[in-house]
Write a structure and sequence with these properties.
- By secondary structure, the protein is mostly helical.
- It has a domain of 111 residues: Cytochrome Bc1 Complex, Chain D, domain 2 (Orthogonal Bundle), CATH 1.10.760.
- It contains nine helices and two strands.
- A two-stranded antiparallel sheet has the order 1-2.
- Strand 1 and strand 2 form a beta hairpin.
- Helix 7 packs across helix 8.
- It starts with a helix and ends with a helix.
Length: 190
């Protein structure tokens, strides 16, 4: 009976010797290394012609480029919901507010650091621009603004565009468009 623990320990040790590290270190090719396995001697295999990554088949040009032909789109390519606007606000605060400020007046932190002031979204010229134009500026950059195409996914760029429209409307409401109750609240605040 006293031998049983020792026998189990020895038996377990023998079983463990069967598990070798080389089972984990599988043979593989290093990127850009030469190999004799393939006729072209390249270890990295070229993609099959016509291969497109999942979700990257860019057949909807309005969605992917913000344009139809050479003209910027006037309508969003998908429905704008509360969730899209909230996502846009979140992404705007991360990527855009350092330059454009939280309200879009071009008074972000970079201005206080001595860098060039970006345009305000609340000028008549920018309020009249199409949503495709705003999307294209985010995607391709403009002036001293860099392209955000590699940093912000396509749907998030549209969400930011929707939030910029919300900012523009929030700062440019005509009193005649307000309801009677909203006018009373406005007059009470003054």
């Amino acid at each position: 009976m006293k031998r049983l623990p020792w026998l189990l320990l020895i038996g377990g040790s023998m079983l463990m010797m069967g598990c070798r590290q080389d089972m984990h270190d599988q043979p593989r090719f290093r990127l850009n290394a030469a190999t004799d396995l393939f006729g072209d001697r390249r270890a990295a295999r070229p993609l099959v012609q016509g291969t497109v990554a999942r979700g990257m088949l860019k057949t909807d040009t309005a969605l992917w480029s913000g344009k139809v032909g050479n003209k910027n789109v006037d309508q969003f390519p998908f429905p704008i919901t509360r969730e899209v606007i909230e996502r846009g606000r979140d992404r705007y605060n991360i990527f855009c507010s350092p330059c454009h400020g939280l309200t879009g007046h071009g008074d972000g932190m970079i201005v206080s650091r001595g860098l060039k002031k970006p345009p305000s979204y609340h000028t008549d010229a920018l309020r009249e621009q199409s949503v495709g134009h705003i999307y294209n500026v985010i995607t391709n950059g403009n002036g001293s603004m860099m392209s955000y195409a590699s940093r912000i996914p396509m749907r998030d760029r549209w969400a930011i565009t929707a939030y910029v429209r919300v900012l523009q409307q929030s700062q440019n409401v005509k009193v005649s468009e307000l309801t009677a109750e909203e006018r009373r609240k406005l007059e009470g605040a003054q």
